[in-house]
Amino acid sequence: MLCGRTHIMSREKLLEMNRSLIQHGEAGTMDLADQVAKIPVEAYTDITLFEREKERIFKRLPLMVAPSCELPEPGDYKAMDIAGVPLLLTRKRDGSVGAFLNMCSHRGNPVVSGTGNASRFTCGYHGWTFKNDGDLVGVASPKDFGAVDKAELCLKKFPVLESAGLIWATLDVDSTLSIEDYLCGYDDLLAAFGFEDWILFDKRELPGPNWKTAYDGYLDFYHLPVLHANTFGSDFFNRANYFAWGPHQRLANPSKFAQRTGSDEMLDLTEIPEDDWPIDALVQGVWTIFPHISIASFYGGGGRGAMISQLFPGETVGESVTTQFYVMEREPETEEQRKGAQEQFDFLKIVVRDEDYSTGKRQHDALMSGQMGHVLFGRNEGGGQVFHQWADKLVNASDDELKDIFAAENAVAQAAE
Ligand code: FES
Ligand SMILES: [Fe+2]
Question: Which part of the chain is the Rieske domain (predicted)?
Answer without folding.
Answer: 63-169
